[in-house]
Amino acid sequence: MNQILPFFLFFALPFTSFASQEKNQNEKQLPLNILAAIEKGSTFLKKNQNEDGSWGSPHQTKGLNIFAPVPGSHRAFRLAVSALSLNALLHIQSNNLEYKKTISKARDYLLKNLGELRRASPMAIYNVWSHAYGIQALVMLHQTSYGTKVKTRIRDLIIHQISMLAKYESIDGGWGYYDFNAQTKQPSGSSISFVNATVLISLREAKNIGIDVPIKIIEKALDAIRRQRLPDHSYLYGEYLKYRPRRGINRPGGSLGRSHACNLALQIWGEKSITTEIHKLCLDRLIKRNGWLDVARKRPVPHESWFAVAGYFFYYGHLYASLCVEQLPLTERPYYQQKLSKILIPLQEKDGSWWDFPFYNYHQQYGTAMALLSLNQCIP
After folding, report:
1. Is the pLDDT at 317 greater than 60, yes or no?
2. Which residues contact 294 (CB under 8 A, 6 or more apart)?
3. 229: helix, coil or strand?
């Protein structure tokens, strides 16, 4: 036995060294894989932009689709998806001359149409998404534009979006996208945790470039998220479920796609209880339990999967997870960047797009934009 042991050790040492070299090579190759996926996704957006500079259309992708009073719902959908797509390209391709025309057309579309947006009906308040994602795209436009005149126009439009969000704030604070209660001038429906988070994150970005944001709507929205926060670091889907906290959609598996957005919104507005450890706990959950989100991906009916997960939770959840990684210490980011990129890159379609829910003809556009923004955060 004493003679055999060195024999095994002799072969084990080179094998270990080779495995280590292979691991290092894979780690070096990872950014190249990310960059290749980003380029392919960017090309998809460029090729699929509408003539007027927007993205998406109300083309029916299946017999059953979500409640969408016309024409207002589709104006909101198209503006939200266009803002997301423009924001992605501004983050990734703003210095690339090949995308100059694409970005210019999208900018003109947004500046022309975003100021005219209203809710579709007393019941459907999808425009909240457009105002939030519109602010983020406009902030990026402000940062990448030159000239006092154009910057002033962008700032004025951001301020208008903030006033519209104040107008459509839920009575109890925060925002939702439906009002099936009284359909009042000020929405009477429950606030939805991740809608609150999305809006709060966009408002923080506006504040970061020096735009005044009414503190009252911020405090009410933060309180609404806190009321929906559970001891296990999950979040209620909406405040209307506060008496059913153990319903599937409110449990950790059902909250995978929104916990990160809610954590980030609270933290960037000063909530001290959202720590590095909380971010890591929720990121680890997303990675280890990713199947609960993935099993719903591409299913045509919302909330038909386990924990009432809907397909459109997928890329939304990974986008805000990638933004939470940015809140970690520098030394702890690479692990999560690699994990997220390894989830997202294999899901890219042959045409360069990503999608998670067949949503009229907006799904490939928003899925691709969210995946691109996520992968951009994964570059070391």
Report:
1. yes
2. 314
3. strand
Evaluate whether 138 touches 164 at the Cβ level (below 8 Å). no
CA distance 230 to 94: 40
Total number of domains constituting the chain: 2
For 151-160, which contacts have Cβ atoms below 8 Å and span 24 or more sequence positions?
153/111, 154/111, 155/211, 157/111, 157/114, 157/115, 158/206, 158/211, 159/211, 159/212, 160/115
**Domain that residue 121 falls in:** 70-228
CB neighbour burial string for 168-195, b if at least 16 within 10 angstroms, e if fewer: bbbbbbbbbbbbeeeeeeebbbbbbbbb
Kindly state whether residues 252 and 222 are assigned to the same domain: no
What does the DSSP assignment read for 89-124?
HHHHHTT-GGGHHHHHHHHHHHHHHGGG---SSSSB
Residue 31 resides in a domain: no
Among 228, 259, 284, the domain-final residue is 228
What phi-psi label fits residue 360: left (phi over 0), alpha (psi between -120 and 50 degrees) or beta? left
91 and 208 in one domain? yes
- Is pTM beyond 0.85 here? yes
Per the domain annotation, does 47 fall within a domain?
A: no
Residue 2, pLDDT > 70, answer: no
- Whether residues 342 and 253 share a domain: the answer is yes
- The answer to whether position 266 is within a domain reads yes
Q: Name residue, tokens 């994964």.
A: 378
In the chain, the percentage of residues whose pLDDT exceeds 90 is 88
* Whether residue 74 is found in the same domain as residue 210: yes
Task: Tell whether 154 and 303 lie within a shared domain.
Answer: no
* Confidence grade of residue 30 (pLDDT, cut at 50, 70, 90): low
Residue ranges in the chain assigned as alpha helix (H): 4-47, 72-93, 100-113, 127-144, 148-167, 193-208, 215-228, 252-255, 259-268, 276-288, 290-294, 314-325, 333-344, 363-378
User: How does DSSP classify residue 77?
Assistant: H
**353 shares its domain with 380:** yes
d(CA 203, CA 216): 13
Distance CA 6, CA 140 (A): 61
Of the pLDDT bands very low, low, confident and very high (cuts 50, 70, 90), residue 29 is low
